[in-house]
């Protein structure tokens, strides 16, 4: 797999952040028919259900952040220190999420919704086709940048501590997500001097 585990974990985290942001944005407007004229709620429970979903997404994003730190080399002691809990508590909280992420990186990690639902299938797809997912997220970021007048996006390379994709667009507003995907260094055999590497996404994920 040419992309580092940390890059794939960061991509999952980016996707979770995207979903979280979309749901949070939807909660800001007050619908014209949300309240009755006497101030009572027209659909009791609807907003609370949305808030519960938002909280669940926030927890998933929280777990994705911990998994990203772990794939980047953080030990349980560091994770615990950041959260002000013992290392064993951090392990108990996030070990399952990390194991599920690493299982999804394996070819035998599952094949479809029957193995764990649409979300698990999507996460496996992100692990297998990181560049395709990153390009979709590029579109999402750029759409919101255009609406907000630009916000100086950054990529993932600096955080992952790995080299950027050879030949990829620089980390900028043009490729705020895909421009930061990091690839594994080539080990063993070396290419001839001046020989270009594979294009991003070529020959598999």
Biggest sheet features: none
Strand content: under 5%
Roughly what percent helix?
40-55%
Mean pLDDT: 76
Give the H and E element order.
Answer: HHHHHHH
Shape: globular
N→C terminal distance: 6 Å
Low-confidence stretches: 108-115, 151-172, 186-205
- How many whole angstroms does the radius of gyration measure? 20 Å
Query: What is the total tally of β strands?
Result: 0
Structural class: mainly alpha
Number of helices: 7
Can you tell me about this structure?
This protein has 205 residues and is mainly alpha-helical. Helix content is 53%, strand content 0%. The chain contains seven helices and no strands. It is globular and about 55 Å long. The protein starts with a helix and ends in a 45-residue tail after the last helix.
Topology:
Layout (H helix, E strand, L loop, with lengths): L4 H22 L19 H26 L4 H8 L3 H18 L12 H12 L1 H19 L8 H4 L45
């Amino acid at each position: 797999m040419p992309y580092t585990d940390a890059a794939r974990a960061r991509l999952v985290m980016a996707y979770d952040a995207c979903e979280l942001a979309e749901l949070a944005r939807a909660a800001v407007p007050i619908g014209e028919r949300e309240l009755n004229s006497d101030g009572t709620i027209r659909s009791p429970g609807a907003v609370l259900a949305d808030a519960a979903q938002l909280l669940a997404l926030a927890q998933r994003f929280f777990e994705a952040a911990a998994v990203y730190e772990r794939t980047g080399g953080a030990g349980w002691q560091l994770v615990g220190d950041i959260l002000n809990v013992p290392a064993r508590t951090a392990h108990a909280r996030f070990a399952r999420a990390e194991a599920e992420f690493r299982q999804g990186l394996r070819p035998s990690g599952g094949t479809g919704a029957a193995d764990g639902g649409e979300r698990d299938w999507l996460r496996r797809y992100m692990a297998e086709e990181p560049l395709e997912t990153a390009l979709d997220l590029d579109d999402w970021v750029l759409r919101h940048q255009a609406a907000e007048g630009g916000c100086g996006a950054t990529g993932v390379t600096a955080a992952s501590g790995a080299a950027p994709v050879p030949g990829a667009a620089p980390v900028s507003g043009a490729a705020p997500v895909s421009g930061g995907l990091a690839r594994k260094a080539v080990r063993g055999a070396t290419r001839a001097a001046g020989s270009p590497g594979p294009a991003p996404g070529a020959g598999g994920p």
